[in-house]
Design goal:
Layout (H helix, E strand, L loop, with lengths): L5 H7 L19 H8 L3 H12 L15 E2 L1 H14 L5 E4 L11 E5 L7 E3 L13 E7 L7 H14 E12 L1 H14 L4 H16 L5 H11 L2 H7 L5 H8 L7 H13 L19 H8 L4 E4 L4 E2 L2 H5 L4 E2 L2 E2 L4 E7 L1
Length: about 325
């Protein structure tokens, strides 16, 4: 395997992060020669490497990774027996659902925009419109990164308030450590390929610096539409939403659309910070769990797209698409009230 392609191989294999935080036996994914040696070895050793890189730090009681969704059976049974005893259906909140709302009536789907009749409009800049101890489960995906850090802290306090004792909060956000490691590997491997390196720079910085919807990421994908050699290597790195953008062919803007855009620019337009597209903060496996603990969550753990404290998060395919991770490069954190 050529060293120039190692970084993309690591991404396609789904390597999330090094276990260096968990002790001295972790492996550094930026060590190219070490990874090359192990990747060239038998398939058993390769699987062993991926398992070690994926396994969260200091969690020896977690089940081994598999292609099938897994959950903590003890917690799932406890919730099931509680609901059977009380005769109540678990109440579940999907916060900032966007187009991925759950049709099961036990879920309350919310978003800033009223997308469907089953989606309730909720402004997360204000206190949540729910009483204390309302929900058994709360889920939010790629939402917290769209708020300043102070508002994130306040929102976590609101979610703790709305959860019932023993309830589970599941959070998915872009993984800063993962994206930073990919960028550093690209800086080492792609010195002769500025187009490929530009993509990994965009992945790390674009949504925190963009000044227009879609930003540099959208511009790059539009460029790739006319360059098959770029599509060949970038397509395996894209999540479901970005693949849709890559395959989309928008018609040229009409005269009315161009005039509308020009008038908006001349008048100053709407503040871009309010459009919900820009990122104001980013998190890793150290900072986000600490924020949950500071807000009173008693048990905080790193999860995965197919591993959770509650089977409900997995059975409704909230983080899966066609049997695979919906948004690769995500960090999953769960906390129990």
């Amino acid at each position: 395997m050529a060293e120039g392609n190692l970084m993309d191989t690591v991404v396609r294999q789904g390597v999330k992060r090094s276990t260096m935080l968990g002790g001295e036996q972790g492996l550094d994914v930026s060590n190219v020669h070490q990874l090359n040696e192990i990747m060239r070895s038998s398939s058993k050793k390769s699987l062993e490497l991926r398992s070690r890189l994926r396994e969260p730090p200091k969690m020896p009681y977690w089940p081994p990774l598999s292609s099938k969704p897994t959950c903590h059976r003890r917690d799932a049974r406890a919730m099931l027996f509680t609901n059977m005893a009380t005769g109540a259906t678990p109440r579940k909140l999907n916060l900032g659902c966007g187009p991925r709302f759950v049709r099961d009536p036990s879920w309350e789907n919310t978003d800033f925009s009223h997308l469907q009749a089953s989606v309730r409009r909720v402004d997360l800049r204000r206190p949540l419109p729910y009483g204390p101890d309302t929900f058994d489960l709360v889920y939010t995906s790629h939402v917290l990164d769209h708020f300043p850090l102070g508002r994130v802290d306040a929102l976590l306090g609101e979610l703790h308030r709305c959860l019932r004792p023993g309830g589970v909060l599941r959070i998915s956000v872009p993984d800063l450590e993962y994206n930073a490691r990919i960028y550093l590997a690209s800086a080492k491997e792609n010195r002769g390929d500025p187009v490929r390196h530009r993509w990994h720079t965009i992945q790390l910085l674009d949504q925190m610096t963009r000044t227009a919807p879609g930003g540099q990421k959208l511009e790059f994908l539009k460029m790739a539409q006319g360059r098959p050699e770029v599509q060949q290597w970038v397509r395996p790195l894209l999540n479901y939403e970005l693949l849709q953008l890559l395959d989309r062919r928008d018609p040229p803007p009409t005269l009315a659309q161009r005039l509308k855009k020009l008038i908006k620019e001349l008048l100053g337009g709407q503040s871009y910070d309010k459009l919900g597209d820009r990122h104001f903060w980013t998190f890793d496996a150290i900072s986000l769990p600490e924020m949950l603990r500071s807000r009173g969550f008693s048990r905080v753990e790193i999860a995965a797209w197919n591993r959770s404290l509650s089977a409900a998060f997995l059975s409704d395919n909230l983080d899966a698409q066609d049997g695979a991770e919906y948004k690769p490069g995500s960090l999953y954190v769960e906390g129990i009230k």
